[in-house]
Write a structure and sequence with these properties.
This protein has 685 residues and is mostly helical. The chain has 21 helices and twelve strands. Strands 1-2 form a two-stranded antiparallel sheet. The protein has a two-stranded antiparallel sheet with strand order 3-4. The two termini are 31 Å apart. Belongs to the CTL (choline transporter-like) family. Keywords: Antiport, Cell membrane, Glycoprotein, Membrane, Transmembrane, Transmembrane helix, Transport. It is a multi-pass membrane protein.
């Protein structure tokens, strides 16, 4: 063994160090509070401790009618003054009415004043000046907090939209308006609130049933282990039952088509051809034609003959595939620790995802507060220009544009760091894909090394190393980090291109340029196929790296040509393995899912009292089904890797050895028997 692809290993280590440095820089400049807390018009966080807004956790909009939609309210900035308040308004009121009655109803003014700018307490100021300077809102309406922002308290009464049981309100400018005018400004809020209620109920269901979900997943793990152990004895039976079942079903289809064809004989109109009746939207019309059933019968006969001929000519290769499946089950039985290695891969990928997500959030919140001129007059030439709130009042902007204000707009910056934040986000995504693919590659190479040590042991299990999994993991890290990083890099580049294509496709969905959409569709399809091909090549290259310890390119080339020399065996083994593992996943997920359904719906008398009372029984049920499928997938991925490794070892064994005393085969006795005397006889020089 020697170190392979050293240059790529060095680059990989440098990139990891750079990735750590990027995370540190993002952590220094970023501020997640910008995501957690809403920001008022002065760039201050609502609810931030040790500030004047510590007890003011909710954002209030002076004129919510200016806000086009909740998306504008949450993600961008609504063109109206925004203040941090301790609670949302609970009544209708206008500044005009409050000002007119502040002398004999001071309580109304004191209540309304808490929604004005801090420090404003001049009810004698003219209404026009107050509204121009936006010292106070022109109106307040009953609202409730959502996402730490005040939204109108909508409700439906007898099919009519209302706010606090009223259908009209005063807008504070002398007009009476219908509450439907608020609909556009708060579009979709009720649906989101309903979703929040559903979310709370789902959370409650999880809180009640989490331990039963864990029990269900534990059962799925036990069933998956049993299935893998039993494959040693049932792989052939399951496959042949499926094959003969398919042959029988197709045979029944042929008979049914002939029966329909004969039954329609003599019926008026049944002897017409498809060409005679042309295209019909009701496809049942075609079922009244004898020609249709004759075509179906011919197609099914051709499929039946093809399947039977394939079974006749590929019977030995199918037997080899089944024998390798049984051998894989036996190998896992000797190296049981491999079944739990996916947990290591899961932890590594979880770390990568967490680091990427945290870095992305800190990068997205790395900007400094940017203030812009907000003017009521549409013709103001200073509107939307950047400004400095500390010096804004000394400029002539307020004179040229009465009522203009310098308010917080968004987080950004003009420094070199801020200009390249988008590039940093792309780098963050690219290194994330590279690290995830490296973690997967490390797992595949480690498992391949462990199972290869089983195959190449002369006496099984006596000659298997003491700790084959840990030894293989150590070899992969010590000698082949560069090769694994090289394969992961190629795959990460293709995946990043696919991400960019998906982004462009999303952005260009509204375009009418059909050529552009066609070109994007072709590119997406090509890169999808390329990714699948690279995954196949990488997987087999890692197996060859684990066996021989060569670099990535050499291993990929040797694996590819070895597979091409055994292409029929590859196809047969791949399909047989896919079918049996898919059947196993369905059996595990379906069986545990049925058991969970009867349990959570309290249909098992013995456990009826133990079953929790739920808002939605499908919440833990779907969790158990999906979780069981993922658990089975984790165990069966080890099995698939085992079979692929044994298959490459088997092909190498056939090419390098001839069964003689000098070059004996390393394959098991069952594979010896299937190959027969002719293939096992010593090769002539």
């Amino acid at each position: 063994r020697h170190c392979t692809d050293i240059i790529c290993c060095v680059i990989f280590i440098v990139v990891i160090l750079g990735y750590i440095a990027l995370g540190i820089v993002a952590w220094v400049h970023g501020d997640p509070r910008k995501v957690i807390y809403p920001t008022d018009s002065y760039g201050q966080f609502c609810g931030q401790k040790d500030t004047l807004n510590e007890n003011k956790t909710i954002l209030f909009y002076f004129n919510i009618l200016k806000c086009a939609s909740p998306v504008v309210l949450i993600n961008l900035q609504c063109p109206t003054t925004q203040l941090c308040v301790s609670k949302c308004p609970d009544r209708f009121a206008t500044y005009i009415d409050v000002q007119a009655s502040y002398r004999y109803k001071p309580d109304q003014w004191n209540y309304f004043r808490q929604f004005c700018k801090p420090g404003f307490n001049n009810p004698r100021k003219s209404v026009a000046q107050v509204l121009r300077d936006e010292d106070c809102p022109s109106m307040i309406i009953p609202s409730r907090p959502f996402l730490k922002r005040c939204f109108p308290d909508f409700s439906t009464k007898n099919g009519v939209l209302t706010v606090a049981n009223q259908t009209t309100f005063k807008d504070g400018r002398g007009k009476t308006r219908n509450v439907t005018d608020l609909r556009e400004a708060a579009n979709g809020i009720n649906n989101v609130l309903d979703a929040r209620s559903v979310g709370m109920k789902i959370f409650e269901d999880y809180a009640i049933s989490w331990y039963w979900i864990l029990i269900g997943l534990f059962i799925a793990m036990i069933v998956s282990l049993l299935f893998l152990v039993l494959l040693r004895f049932t792989a052939g039976v399951l496959f042949w039952i499926f094959i003969f079942g398919v042959i029988g079903i197709i045979g029944y289809g042929i008979w049914h088509c002939y029966w329909e064809y004969d039954h329609l004989k003599g019926i008026p109109g049944s002897d017409l051809t498809v060409y005679d009746i042309g295209f019909q939207t009701d496809f049942r019309v075609y079922l009244q034609l004898r020609q249709t059933w004759l075509a179906f019968m011919i197609i099914l006969c051709v499929v039946e003959v093809i399947i039977i001929l394939m079974l006749i000519f590929l019977r030995n290769r199918i037997r080899i595939a089944i024998a390798l499946l049984k051998e894989g089950s036996r190998a896992i039985g000797y190296i049981m620790s491999t079944l739990f290695y996916p947990i290591v891969t899961f932890i590594l990928i979880a770390i990568c995802i967490s680091y990427w997500a945290v870095t992305a959030v800190f990068l997205a919140t790395s900007g400094e507060p940017v203030y812009k001129v907000m003017a009521n007059q549409t013709l103001c030439k200073y509107a939307n220009l950047t400004c400095d709130p500390e010096t804004f009042n000394t400029t002539n902007v307020t004179k040229l544009c009465p009522g203009a204000q310098c308010t917080f707009a968004f987080y950004g910056g003009e420094s070199l760091y801020h200009k390249y934040i988008f590039i940093f986000q792309l780098a963050n995504a690219f290194v994330f894909l590279w690290l995830v693919n490296f973690a997967i590659a490390l797992g595949q190479c480690t498992l391949a090394g462990a199972f290869a040590s089983y195959y190449w042991a002369s006496r099984k299990p006596a000659d298997i190393p003491l700790w084959p999994l840990f030894s293989s993991f150590g070899r992969a890290i010590r000698y082949h980090t560069g090769s694994l990083a090289f394969g992961a890099l190629i795959l990460a580049i293709v995946q990043l291109i696919r991400v960019i294509l998906e982004y462009l496709d999303h952005k260009l969905k509204g375009t009418q340029n059909s050529f552009t959409r066609f070109l994007l569709c072709c590119l997406k399809c090509c890169f999808w196929c390329l990714e699948k091909f690279l995954k196949f090549i990488n997987r087999n290259a890692y197996i060859m790296i684990a066996i021989y310890g060569k670099n990535f390119c050499t291993s990929a080339k040797e694996a590819f040509f070895l597979l091409m020399r055994n292409v029929v065996r590859v196809a047969v083994l791949d399909k047989v393995t896919d079918f049996l593992l898919f059947l196993g996943k369905i059996l595990v997920a379906g069986g545990v899912g049925v058991l969970a359904f009867f349990f959570f719906t309290q249909r098992i008398p013995v456990f009826a009292q133990e079953a929790p009372t739920l808002n939605y029984y499908w919440v833990p049920l779907l969790t158990v089904i999906i979780g069981s499928y993922l658990v089975a997938h984790g165990f069966f991925s080890v099995y698939a890797m085992c079979v692929d490794t044994l298959f490459l070892c088997f092909c190498e064994d056939l090419e390098r050895n001839d069964g003689s005393t000098a070059k004996p085969y390393f394959m098991s006795a069952s594979l010896h028997r299937i190959l027969g005397k002719k293939e096992l006889s010593p090769k002539k020089a």
